[in-house]
Amino acid sequence: MPAYKLMYFEAKGRAEVIRLSFAVAGQSFEDKRYSIEEWYKVKQAIPQHQLPCLQVDGRFIPQSGAIMRYIAREFGFYGDNNNENTRVDVILGASDDFLKNVMSWYYEKDETKKEEIKKDLEETKLPQFFSLLESILKENDGGDGYFVGKKISLADIMIYDITDQTSSIAKLPAFPPKLAGLIDRVKNNSKIKEYLAKREKLSQ
């Protein structure tokens, strides 16, 4: 079995969906979290000089999207055929589109503009995103299961992580009914539940 080392900062950020994916896979990994000072010392040795980066038996994989897809393919939650793979990609693409709004809030320095972005998130962008997810979810088993196939996939993990992290900067609107059920199923997945319990202890 390969040895995995995930490198990131002491934050959820772009690494958390990867950590959650390892949890779903039941795969142990080294969760290396750099301080800013430590990062500057090793930055030049990391491909593309950015994090997250995954090391697999000494081989480096940069880019969060590549890492999460690698893990999902490796451990069987990227879909069971090309149609399902593509469906996962559609949801990941929609997620990337939405996250641009969150990142614009994160990088904005002007407090007035920051508040405007937050207001737009709460009143427009989040309701639109949730409505889109609800319609996509209903296309598979009427929305009573997962986004893809009959089991949890990277798409479900990604949406759970987005809602979790976005709730720290904006008030989430009520989830549409099918999406609410999906979030509960992911959160109550036995392996994710175990990971979240450990994560809560680490944050205390």
From TrEMBL:
SUPFAM superfamilies: GST C-terminal domain-like (SSF47616), Thioredoxin-like (SSF52833). InterPro entries: Glutathione-S-Trfase_C-like, Glutathione-S-Trfase_C_sf, Glutathione_S-Trfase, Glutathione_S-Trfase_N, GST_C, GST_superfamily, Thioredoxin-like_sf. It comes from Magallana gigas (Pacific oyster). GO terms for biological process: glutathione metabolic process. Residues 81-204 form the GST C-terminal domain. This is S-crystallin SL11. Signal peptide: none annotated. Belongs to the GST superfamily. Keywords: Eye lens protein. Residues 2-79 form the GST N-terminal domain. GO terms for molecular function: glutathione transferase activity; structural constituent of eye lens. PANTHER family: GLUTATHIONE S-TRANSFERASE (PTHR11571:SF150). It comes from the Eukaryota.
